[in-house]
Each structure stands twice: as C-alpha cells, then as structure tokens.
Design brief:
CATH class: Alpha Beta
Mean pLDDT: 89
Number of domains: 1
Structural class: alpha/beta
Low-confidence stretches: none
Radius of gyration: 13 Å
CATH superfamily: Response regulator
Order of helices and strands: EHEHEHEHEH
Largest sheet: 5 strands, parallel
Number of helices: 5
Helix content: 40-55%
C-alpha cells in the first residue's frame, strides 16, 4: 500500500498556511503546517516529506533560503513556493534553486492540486523514492 504524499507547508501567515494544509489534506495528501523556515527544517530532521511548499517572503528565513537548505540537506525533496510575486520571479533563479512549482497568492484549489500532483508525478519519474 502506498502512503499518501507528505507535504510540509512553511508559511509565517498562520491562516494561509493552515488553509493550504487543509486544501492538500482534503485532496488526499498528508499535510503539516509550520510558521517558519527554521521550524520547517528542524521538522525535516525527524520526519520525511515528499514536498515542501514555502512562502517566499518570510522574516528570518526566506523561501529562497528554505529551498537552498532543502537542496543541500534533502536533495530528493520537491520544493515549491507560495508567493504574491509569482509572475515576477526570475526563471533562472527558480531553476537554480530547483523550484518545481510556484503557487500564486491568492491560490486556486484546482491549481494547487494540479501543481503538486504534477511535481509528485515528475519527481517519481525522476527517481524521488516514496514508500
């Protein structure tokens, strides 16, 4: 039996993070929300996640910094960003940080499902193991 994909939401806006976690849980994923990049990375030390979705603009540790730390520590984890600046992000910077998808704020439930689902399918094809 395949377990549902585990998704970590990192967002300092509690309402946004919990709403996104609720949306992903409703779709059938196992989603957890934390309020900071440091908290998220600490949780990754004890729990395995398939996808990390981080807010881009947060105090203390930005989404870029979360993505860089994930790339270094957890190279198999897929990373996406949530931002109000989605259409203004540099494609080169997204590629450099291995960002798999960007969810614009405000987000659409169908778009969240599509982007996360595509990232998981592509990650499985590329060899990111899930058990």
């Amino acid at each position: 039996m395949v377990r549902p994909a585990r998704i970590l939401i990192v967002d300092d806006e509690h309402a946004v993070g919990t709403m996104l976690a609720d949306v992903l849980s409703t779709i059938g994923y196992s989603a957890v929300h934390v309020g900071s990049g440091r908290e998220g990375l600490a949780l990754c030390e004890s729990e395995r996640f398939d996808v990390i979705v981080s807010d881009l603009s947060m105090p203390g540790m930005s989404g870029w910094q979360v993505a860089a730390a994930c790339r270094e520590r957890y190279p198999g984890v897929l990373v996406g960003l949530v931002t109000g600046w989605g259409n203004q992000l540099d494609p080169g910077q997204l590629a450099e940080h291995r960002i798999r998808f960007v969810l614009p704020k405000p987000f659409d439930v169908d778009e969240v499902a599509r982007q996360v689902g595509e990232a998981l399918r592509e990650g499985a094809t590329a060899g990111s193991p899930r058990s």
